[in-house]
Amino acid sequence: MLEKIDHLGVAVKNLDAVLAFYTEKLMLACDGEEIVPEQKVRVAFLPIGTTTIELLESTAPDGPVAKFIDQKGEGIHHVAIRVANIEEALASLKAKGVRLIDEKPRIGAHGAKIAFIHPKESNGVLIELCEKCK
Ligand code: ZN
């Protein structure tokens, strides 16, 4: 059911400044940026091997990433796991009594269907399930 680590989401205050470290020092290539209005974030994608680092900058002071940084500071925000069928994955977890932030998928970057598991279930790690549309 769980296929791979699709991406790591990293919360940053200033995307352009942080991007320079990843591209100029770590020599990763940025393969695009996207604004995801539903999540109030601007995202930059840095593929690495079969996974991707996603840098997340909040576009609003009340966005989830801004709130995360207020509480915990910058750093790893979530681990995203690719699933083949997100509705099935959510139904299966719900049946096992797992607390979910999203009982129904919403739309994330690249039009993927995403849903978050409550971080209390995984000892503080925010896990995102994502199903790619392609
Ligand atoms: Zn994500």
Number of helices, counting only DSSP H or I runs of 4 residues or more: 3
Name of the CATH homologous superfamily: 2,3-Dihydroxybiphenyl 1,2-Dioxygenase, domain 1
Q: How would you classify the helix and strand content by structural class?
A: alpha+beta
Query: Could you name the ranges where pLDDT drops below 50 across 5 or more consecutive residues?
Result: none
| CATH topology type | 2,3-Dihydroxybiphenyl 1,2-Dioxygenase, domain 1
DSSP strand tally:
8
Main beta-sheet annotation: 8 strands, mixed
Percent strand: 35-45%
Supply the CATH class: Alpha Beta
Mean pLDDT: 95
CA-to-CA gap between the ends? 17 Å
- The number of domains is 1
The ordered H/E elements are EHEEEHEHEEE
The distinct bound ligands, ions and cofactors come out as: zinc ion
Strand order of the largest sheet: 2-3-4-1-5-8-7-6
Please tell me the CATH architecture by its name: Roll
Note the quaternary state here: single chain
Give the overall shape.
globular
